Each structure stands twice: as C-alpha cells, then as structure tokens.
Amino acid sequence: MSRKLKVAAAQVGTIHANSDRAETLQRLITLLKTAASQGAQLVVFPETTFTTFFPRYVLSPTELDKYFEKGDDITQSENVKQFFDTAQSLHIDVCIGYAELTSTGDPYNTCVYYSATQGKVISKYRKIHLPGTSEPFDDPTAINQLEKKYFKPGNLGFNAFRAPGLVPAALKKDTTEPNTAGKGDPIVGMMICNDRRWPESWRAYGLQGVELVLCGYNTPNFAPDLYGEPDMDVQAAEREAYFHHKLVLEYNSYANSCYSISAARAGLDDGKYGLIGGSSIVDPNGHTIAEAAGTGDEVVVAEIDLGVCRYGKETMFDFGRHRRIETYGMISSQTGVIEPPLL
Amino acid sequence: MSRKLKVAAAQVGTIHANSDRAETLQRLITLLKTAASQGAQLVVFPETTFTTFFPRYVLSPTELDKYFEKGDDITQSENVKQFFDTAQSLHIDVCIGYAELTSTGDPYNTCVYYSATQGKVISKYRKIHLPGTSEPFDDPTAINQLEKKYFKPGNLGFNAFRAPGLVPAALKKDTTEPNTAGKGDPIVGMMICNDRRWPESWRAYGLQGVELVLCGYNTPNFAPDLYGEPDMDVQAAEREAYFHHKLVLEYNSYANSCYSISAARAGLDDGKYGLIGGSSIVDPNGHTIAEAAGTGDEVVVAEIDLGVCRYGKETMFDFGRHRRIETYGMISSQTGVIEPPLL
Predict the structure, then answer these.
(1) Which of A18, A71, A157, B230 is the most buried (most CB within 10 A)?
(2) ipTM, 2 decimals?
(3) Which CATH superfamily does the domain covering A4-333 fall into?
(4) Quick one: which H or E segment has residue A25?
C-alpha cells in the first residue's frame, strides 16, 4: 500500500543582526503558506530560524538574551505564536529550529516537531554535536563559532518518533500482522546542522528504523577544512562547503535507507557573513531529488514514497543480519583518538 | 616536516572460474612491477585477488577447497610465494586479499599487509561485514552472494597499525614531544569490500587516528538497492553501483580525515558476471584524486601527504572535542532495528 507524502524544505535567506523580528516572522509565514499551497504536508525550517545565526558574534549576556525563546513550549511564545497558529490553520506539520532557554535557565540549540493533527509539539531535539570553540579566537579577523559557549550539548538523545496524520489511516496499526516494520505512521528523526556530518547521529536514528531525517542548518560558504589555505579561492571554497554538505546527506541517507530533508539559513548576513543554500530532499539511495536553486527564501517540494526505504533496510543495510556490534565497542566507549604507539 | 609518500591501487581485470592460477599470478606480478616502476611505495590489491570471486557460485566442499590458501602465513604458500618474493625484491609494500583457510580449518575472507622493510606480513585483517545470504537464492536466475556460507565473520577486529619504512626516518619517534599525534610512521587500517559501506568500520579506525585506509573489493556492476526494479536499465544500474562506491569512500574519508586507497577486481567474469572498476585514491577532504580509467588490469598512482590529514582531525572532526559518546550507546549495544511503537 502506498505510503506517499509531499514534503518541503523552507530555505530562509539573509537575516541580519538588526533585522526586525516581526518582519522575519512574516517571511517564515509566507514560506509556510507557499509550501501549503504546493500541497506539502510537512515543511522543515532551518536551525535558529527566527533570528540571524548569532554564535558568530561575541555577545554580552544581555545581548545574547534577545536571541533566545524562553520557556518550555515554543508555541506559546508571544514572539512566534503566530507562526504555529498559521501551521495549525493550514494543517501543515513543521520542524523548526530556535535558540531555547528553558524554564530552568538552560540554553540549547533546539528544534521541535509541531504536528498539525495533534495541534502541539510532539517531539523536541536539542543539538548534540555543537561545533566550534568555547571561547573566541585570538585572531580578530577570524569568524567565531561560539556554540560551545552559548549552548549546552543536547540532553535528549536521538529519539525517533512517529508523525501522525501524514499517511492514510488505513496504514495505521495492523493487529493481524506481527511484523510492523515499514508500516504505520512515518518514523522521523531530527538533527541540527553539524550533527549531519557525524555518522553516529544517523546510525542512532537508523537503528530506530528512521524513514525521514529532518535537519536545519547554518553553514558558512567556505569550508574550514580546505587544507587550511589562507589564500583560498572564494568560489572554490564555496563549492567545497556545498560538496561536503551534499556528501554527508547523500551518504548517510543511503547508509540508513531513509529520506532526508535539509533546510538552510542562506544568504549574506550583515553584508559579510556568507551562508550556503543547498536546501534539499535526498532519497534512500542517496540521490538528491530536489534542491534549492539559490540562496534566498525558497520552498523546495517533493513527493516521496516511504515504501522506497524498505529495499535497502531489507538487503544491503539489513542491520539485524549484517551488523557486528562485537567489533563496535570503541565507538561508544572512547571519545577521542588513541593512536597506535610509535615504532 | 613532509610526510609524503607515493601509493597505488592495482586494479585486476577479468578472472574466470577456469582461469589458470599461474597466469593470474603473473598478471599480479606485472601490476606490482608497473607500480614499482612508477615509484609507488605501497600498492593495494583487490579482495580474493588470486582467483575469481567464487562466492557467486554454489560449490561443493571439494570445489570450494581450491579457492583457499591454506595455513597461517600466506607468504609461504607455494601458490603465491613468488608474488611476495617479488614485492620484497622491488622493496614495495603490499596489501592483498585472499580466501584464507587457517591451520585450524577456519575459513575467512582475509587481507594482509606485507612490509618490504620487515620482509614479512605485519598485519592481517579478516572481513567483518560479510554481505549476502547463508544459503543460495530460490530463484535460479539470481546471482548468489554466499560469503555468509563460505566464510566466518572476521575475528580480528579493526586494528590500525603503523607501516614502517614509508616516511623518512627523521619523522620517527620524537621523544622530546609528548604529543605524537600526526607523527611517525603512517597509521594504516584495512577493510574489505562491503566493510567500506559501513561507517562503523571507518570510525573504529578513525578512533585510532587512521591516515590511510586500504580496501580491496569485488562489486557487481548493478546496484541491488536500485528500488528493486526488475527491468532496470543496465547502464543506469552500473552508474548506480559506481555512485555508491564513490559515495562511501568519499564520505568516510572525509568524516575520518584520512586517505583511502581502493582496488577493484573488475571486468566480466565467465563472460557474464560484471564487476565495476573505479579503483581510486581519495583524500582526507573526500575528493577522489586518482581513479582507474577502465575495468581491466590497471595501476592507479598518486603522491599523498599524510600531513593533510591533520587539519580535519584537529578541527571539524576533532573527536576528543566534539564526539558525545553518551548518546552513542545503541550503536554498539543493539544489532538490529527497534522501531518506535505504532501509534
């Protein structure tokens, strides 16, 4: 039976440090309406969507405060309530990232899954792989990446969940069939930006049978891993950043036989901080099936069939048949590198 | 200081079930000489290099026997001794795969690293991720993949090692420097064919600071994960198999900041079993820097600088700084998929 659905990535172009928050919110609502008008049932927004990507700035506690949404239920935040109300009225599911300050004062780089069917947030993810450094670089010309300073590492793990209301009710619980694999509501996993570069994030979801990985990101338009060349050609550096972005999504979607939807904050913030676009939808064979054309506000839509996930999960990547966990101990017991001794 | 070396992949074209073993051996020796003449210090050969890829056949124990090398030291096997003697006389290191029957009668899909400097095998790897099925398919037209029937899963784990004699002696042990990361003899890890599709194989080596992953393979020229379409276009299927091969090498080399060298058994065995070529050398940023042009016997050579591995290992993929093992437990404790309950 068909498990088709229509999904979208909402790419968000330039947001400056001094962009008006209400104006930004209207742009997001316009993207939501555009996605809904194209028949999308689920739309993925970027990381820290409601403001510019502030971890690039060195900020005082007071300056920092304005970038965070307070409290435990983002849908009730006055700043952004209209966004979720619109999703509800359009009956469209949303995954969206924001800077979260919990009721106990803990800061996280967070995203939520808002279910229109349920009328509430049904899953929350807090970014686990915070990149960058805990303190600003000594070099005043370097662009900082202070997520380790401004956020705590996510404490919710990688918890896949079922998203209700996206596939026909007839495909829900079939009590006559003991093997429920590949049935029922879509199995969804969320990650944020740098998480997507780490195979561990994907495998944790893959082991839960994930069919759809959702990932918002802010990715600078130069690859810092470009041999560390200070005189790097700007366009080559941007191609390199795109290359790695695409590589990590295509490989990990393939190796876990799942679709992935990624949504960029893109453009040129403050007239000087460039971010790649490349919002995309990738299939379980690792092919990019839809991709943003530019770096502005843009909706990317594709119809997908979750049934396509099954083939890989039952053959090449049938984990139960092929994985050899007796050789994987190091992966979860050892954080850093231990080299073989010098000869 | 420079840690440059010249490495090669020796791609081996068609070998039929009835190919003469002595003739095949001479082809391998020719490849070895060609690599040496181009200045290669290390050359990687395919999986089960000395014969055709026999796990595609349903074989009796007697028929099976002739494909295996007996005993624990491959270099002393009369069938292949000349190959290692040639490597010794050319002073070239070799990684080569073969079907191993140990002195205790256990069958493995194995490869060894032969060090010309040491004049012996200094590391052995036994394939961990055996693909395919334990018994033949019911469909007599299907091509079998009986590695699970003919081999035991590798029991040596993923053990990285240092390969001596490849970089200048001046770069060896520096007792004045407590941090030896990125110094000394190259850190090498070996894997075989299907292992390369699994991020766990690469990460196990990455956690040992691997700089050079060596991988021989036999990969059919159609991707079984192509949506399971029985009427798949032949050329599209071959492109798909190449696409996945390239994707897994490029991503995992990037995500572990290492070079990789992969060597194919390629061509059209028995006039009907097609295998992809695509033997290649990939750099730590995920770029293929050298690649076989065809599907016949061919040597692919590149000069590499192990110093290039450092940048990624110290920034984006600085495991000690960024990995969050408290969220990875499932990866080494749970073999198969456990889906979230149906709603």
Answers:
(1) A157
(2) 0.96
(3) Carbon-nitrogen hydrolase (3.60.110.10)
(4) helix A21-37
